[in-house]
Design a protein that fits this description.
133 residues, five-stranded mixed barrel, 35% strand, 3 helices, alpha+beta, single chain, globular, 6 strands
Length: 133
Amino acid sequence: MKRSFVVLVIAGGLIGGSIQLYGHHSFASTYHEDQVVTVEGKIVQFLFRNPHSYLHVEAPDEHGTMQTWAIEWASAGQLNSQGVARETLKPGDVVIITGSPGRDPADHRVRMQQLRRPSDGFEWGKRPEEKVQ
């Protein structure tokens, strides 16, 4: 009886642990993947972490009101392999972010596609393709 219980607990743990692999959210449910916005402002915070890194940037919205934008980026591991480290970006750096806007405009969220820092020419990512109408 004890042996069956142990086997059942181990099997349950293996199955339960593998379910987390399918738990990643869809970017399309959070962002308008078919739209592009540009946000230019100063970095307030850089969260270099997994599963996604974030930049918080203070920049004006479409009405000119200053907002803190949450810019979702790649994981720390992915960024590290692309030459971005925890020290690459600092609060106060002026950046130009291009990416997909969040579905709720009140959230001021963007999924980053490209980052440029004009002060030294640092760039990450590729320019989004222009939408042909």
